Amino acid sequence: IMWTRKELKQQAKEALQRNYWKSVLVTLLLLFLSGNWFGSITSSMSDGMVAEVESPVFDDWEETEEFQMDLQDETIQDLENENIIIGVIVTAVVFLIIFFSVLGAILVYEIFIELPVIVGANRFMLKGIEGKGEVRELAYALDHSYKNVVKVMFHTELSIFLWSMLFVVPGVYKQYQYRMVEFILAEQPDLFYKEAMQRSKDMMNGEKWKVFVLDLSFVLWEIVSVMTCGIAHVLYVAPYKYLTNAALYRRLCGK
């Protein structure tokens, strides 16, 4: 299947003209609902504590009133240090509980809400390439084989993540290899996850470098997005890219 960047982008521009405001609305909703677009949350915590305890030196070992007072002061100091250590441990435990609770909530949201919505958004883009799309397509995966869509998308994202743990390059490779899974589910939401992932592999076989170059062709548009504080991204760049990817999928379907 032969295709060119010019051909795909022309189809995307024509589709954007036919569905401009709907495309912008779907893009805006997708950017709002998708956790990936909110940026990454970085948290850092530093804590330092220096405790110095000197053992008293005695000229003799006779119990004197002064020695008893020093011993009492030392005991109080040790108790205060223990309280500080306990406080630090409790704070650390509470922080970890809150951190993992928030992380768990984010993961649940991404798996059960964000990923199905992405599939619905891609269905809208496919409809836009073919003619006219409807905003209600955004919720398509929530009403059609929802559990299976979640399962397939979860397996896909997990596979990409695990390959990314090995090194950056394998993760990027897998990301391109499974790039069409979202579009495949947008048309066939009941496919078994292995079949959907295999179809994406077959479609992207021999196409990954060309698709990478296609992505690079949007770099200048992304710079414009940054210069306009994201306004151009919502009003033109993001819908343009989504529709171009939909046009790419439609061309690769011939494989």
Can you tell me about this structure?
The chain has 255 residues and is an all-alpha fold. 74% of the residues lie in helices and 0% in strands. The chain contains eleven helices and no strands. Helix 3 packs across helix 5, helix 3 (65-130) packs across helix 11 (231-252) and helix 10 (219-227) packs antiparallel against helix 11 (231-252).
Number of helices: 11
Average pLDDT, to the nearest integer?
84
Net shape: globular
Q: Please write the string of helix (H) and strand (E) elements.
A: HHHHHHHHHHH
Largest sheet: none
Q: Calculate Rg over CA atoms.
A: 29 Å
The number of E-state strands comes to 0
The share of residues in helices is over 70%
Structural class: mainly alpha
Low-confidence stretches: 36-63
Give the percentage of residues in beta strands.
under 5%
Oligomer state of the chains in this structure: single chain
- The span between the termini is 7 Å
Give the helices and strands, then pairings.
Elements: H1 5-18, H2 20-33, H3 65-130, H4 140-143, H5 146-166, H6 168-177, H7 181-187, H8 193-204, H9 208-216, H10 219-227, H11 231-252
What is this structure, in a nutshell?
With 255 residues, this protein is mainly alpha-helical.
Features:
single chain, 255 residues, mainly alpha, 0% strand
